[in-house]
Design goal:
This protein is of the alpha/beta class. It is built from twelve helices and ten strands.
Length: 350
Amino acid sequence: MEYRQLGNSGLRVPVLSFGTATFGGGNDFFKTWGSTQVDEATRLINLCLEAGVNLFDTANVYSSGISEEILGKAIKGNRNRLLISTKATFPMSEEANDFGSSRLNLIKACEDSLRRLEVDHIDIYHMHGFDANTPVEETLKALESLVQSGKVRYIACSNFSGWHLMKSMSVSERYGWSRYIAHQAYYSLLNRDFEWELMPLGIDQGIGTIVWSPLASGKLSGKYRRNSPAPKDARVAQGGSPVLAGATDEERLYNIVDVLDEIAKETGKSAAQVSLNWLLQRPTVANIIIGARNESQLKENLESVGWNLTIEQVKRLDKASEILPSYPYWHQRQFTMLNTDPDLYGERRK
């Protein structure tokens, strides 16, 4: 297993992590992801550890805390061998202060997560989304107090826009507080909006990227193909997709899948493995979160590392998945001589 530095920090993480949103199935939305219980979760975690995958990602909102509880039971005896990433911000109940990134909620949310996980610290604590109703200074000071207390080792964010993240970095620098070392973001061959602003920001500020939904809710898994009916048991069909996968036209999806199939034949890998490997060639990407309902899915995803696509194969996937960005990015990309990383603006690896 390859390990990479997570952003501008000393923390090394495997290029794959295991996402535990499939644990619990505590409500209708998460049942479409999976309903893994403690015994199966323990087997999956042991398989990950054997393969060198020692980072496990969860969130307090996953099945209303059940995912954290199952993860905590499944890692018994292995805590010192692994890293735990969890999140807060989204509503946990209808109580007025049971959501957001206020000091009140974050300290409570962190302590609740520690209790459910049955651990004394969280290795990477994410703000699951940006809370525009709470001053950034309040959020970051609360996170700094959690770091200073030893309850949190590193802080990160998820689903921030460029200005959200840059403002947060500026506040941390101003006061000498802990800074976000990573941004957990949606990124895939099907949806490359992340490249327009967030990736250049990550390069400039030394922020690592942890990718969620790298297969676009399964649309890049090999189950969706031209002139074939979409699988009825998929998360997208059951309303459990966390991404707006349907916002992309089907013709573009099938054009990408056609190239994935070609390269899969050339490499002897699956379309899903090729999709994941492409992401590992992208700037700032330190880690990809893989999920699995069972051992066979997990083993297939683990085979996406230990090899690399050729430069020519990467270019073919780049071309098949390219889409014109919105303004001002389409204007900026015309002037590669003004950009520090031409790879992001149409001059990749010439």
